[in-house]
Amino acid sequence: MRQDERVTPLELFFDLVFVLALTQCTTLMARDPTWVGLLKGMLVLGMLWWAWVGYAWLTSVVNPEEGTVRLVIFAAMAAMLVTALCVPGAFGSEALLFACAYAVVRTAHIALFTISSRDDPALRHSVAGLAYSTAIGAGLLFVAAFTGGALQLCIWGLAMVLDMSGPFLFGADGWKLVPGHFAERHGLIVLIALGESIVALGVGARATIDAGAVVAALLGVVVAVTLWWTYFDVTAIVAQRRLSSAAEGRARNEMARDSYSYLHFPMVAGIALLAVGLKITLAHVGDPLKLVPTAALLGGTAVYMLAHVAFRLRNVQSLSPRRLVCSLALLALVPVTLALGISSLATLAILTTVLSLLILYEVTRFADVRDRVRHYGSPGISPPR
């Protein structure tokens, strides 16, 4: 197992392909802003997320920069690129090609894991269980490629659930991970998702940039900043320390699985939904948003915040009432903004205000705790309680 906690340049290079995949998912949802469109986007994102998660675990066991591993990672990148290109047609003309490329990505992952587990019976047993769930998930995508409509969506949903359930059903005893590397890798993917929300502002902007578009873009940046703050200011630091201090073996593996592999998905999904809302807002600044874009803008942010509540509950065994209230308030605002018929710009302004007030409250109310967490290890700073 690798000991270096540094994320390598090749891992960052691999993650750049995921940027395109995420962009394609938001584009898919923005082009079809209906409940079915959002469902399709989330299903594709879920499958791609789980493929990425597999490589995050893999690179805690093997060094991606060494020998033939590097070449296999390059091949997986190429297959992931093809998969991303197929996202717009994943439920139509490119369904079979998507399934083929996705299967290559997952097969390369399992092959590398199998080779690296030759001298570790516990890891080999876990990899075998993962191979079963991976084969079922990828196989169902091939079945879905020859169907359509509601049946196709159901098969996709079943594929995602069964694939993601593998590590939960087959146990977490045999896996290996480097805590600092693992936490940083997931933090970087959150950063990539936030970058997609910034990209959405540019893509959604009209050819003529007027005052409304400028204000909407600035508000969108503030929203992205607040989401960055909620994760990286304190949460990511505490979570990494909790993972590092957890007992090596099953306890640490289950914490990594639940906190990062599972709970980071709603974070990324929430940001993707927000990006859809931002893109539509920039395109129609003065018009009221319809139900689905409003749900994506406000509800997506609420999903992100609820994931943070669950993240803290899993790691620290305590609830964050302020973030829970913020999430519920954003969900409640969906019908309110629709009933009042306010403009998309005003809706975005309300979202910005709610998130900014949350950050302001946390920074002032928990200033001492925040300082201890962020500067723990500096002279004169006591450890956080």
Number of helices: 15
Secondary-structure-based class equals: mainly alpha
CATH architecture classification name of the largest domain: Up-down Bundle
**Strands, total number:** 0
The top level CATH class name of the largest domain: Mainly Alpha
Major sheet: size, sense and barrel closure? none
Q: Would you tell me which CATH topology of the largest domain applies?
A: I/LWEQ domain
Distance between the termini: 32 Å
Which regions have little confidence, pLDDT < 50, spanning 5+ residues?
377-385
Q: Roughly how much helix do the residues carry, as a percent range?
A: over 70%
Order of helices and strands: HHHHHHHHHHHHHHH
So what's the overall shape?
Answer: globular
Whole-number count of domains = 2
Q: What is the residue-mean pLDDT, rounded to a whole number?
A: 88
- Share of residues in strands: under 5%
Q: What is the rounded Rg?
A: 21 Å
